Amino acid sequence: MNTPALRIAIIGAGPGGLTCARILQQHGIPVTVHDLDASRTARNQGGTLDMHPDTGQHALREAGLWDAFTALSRPEGEQMRLVSRNGLIVFDAAPPQDGQGNPEIDRGQLRDLLLDSLTPGTVRWGHKLTHAEPLGEGTHRLHFADGSTADADLVVGADGAWSKVRRLLSDATPIYTGVTFVETGFDGADHRHPELAALTGNGTMMALDNNQGFVAQRNSGGHIRTYVGMRTDEDWYQRRSLDLNDGHAVREALLKEFAGWSDRLLGFITDTDTGYTNRPLYSLPVPHTWPHTSGVTLLGDAAHLMSPFSGMGANLAMRDGADLASALIEHPTIDDAITAYEDILLPRSSEAAEGAAEGIDSAFAPDSANRTLAHMTQNH
């Protein structure tokens, strides 16, 4: 597609949207990314990601960022450990020795890598989309919260779970999975919390049993990010008249929920350095499809929000971004490109979302300890 006047607007500066922008710019196609954050440092980007060969790694190679990624990644972070509710290690898988696995990288490091690869000024910060107005013939006018507008020949919804762009294509809204994570964490873990650091290992530690569990992830810089998970009502804290800003009250409520678990694991609740953040998990209906619509498409969570137990969220978003950019480069019109891209996107994302739904149902079940051990033993 050789159309310098083409106006492409990507909504959302996450891994998928930035990957798409990077590859388009490599091929001389102009693009603007709009993001609601006030700046690139406005908020923490979350935990660690493992990049898979046929999705995230493929996208990084297409974007010409593989060498820069390998300099930042942590192959040792692929270690996977399963712990019983009694605090005993029952399964421990070391990362592959041949370097052919799924190396880890912090989300913030990955985002910075992608942002730094773009032409300065590509991302317009503080641009919170309120709605997109169809103008006809595939053109849309974007309305932002600051009162500004922008017209686009192609709008790419990379704006996550609660996507505003998705409303142009689908009435689907995210549904609560029945599982909530309470996020917490530890700084300087090896020195300040050596027992928790040793239990976590170099990668990810999981302890799952009877609809509850702990997931601890080793991040860079000696930080361990922990998710205390439970199958519960979405308003679990409201029913307890619990103020989520009251750290002491949250800690006591979680300790009550996890009564009977090992003191080794309860340390992930009591010894936090970062407080507690309530994170209910949502997913889109499966399959999530939409009719072809001129001038607009979706990628990443906007298209296929699923539980983190797929292990594929950011990986799929990046592969989506790479595939959409390739379609725009290879096809003569936007409509042709969208059709080719969605023919790949929709079946792939449906398959992944089905697997994610099965994954969270297995991880938070009455017999999840046995089911998780059987799954890990089979796959390693």
Automatic annotation (TrEMBL):
It is an enzyme of class 1 (oxidoreductase). The keyword Oxidoreductase applies. NADPH binds at residue 43. It is found in: Cytoplasm. Its EC number is 1.14.13.-. Its main location: cytoplasm. Keywords: Cytoplasm, FAD, Flavoprotein, Monooxygenase, NADP, Nucleotide-binding, Oxidoreductase. Consists of an N-terminal FAD-binding domain with a Rossman fold and a C-terminal substrate-binding domain. This is Flavin-dependent monooxygenase. It comes from Streptomyces roseoverticillatus.
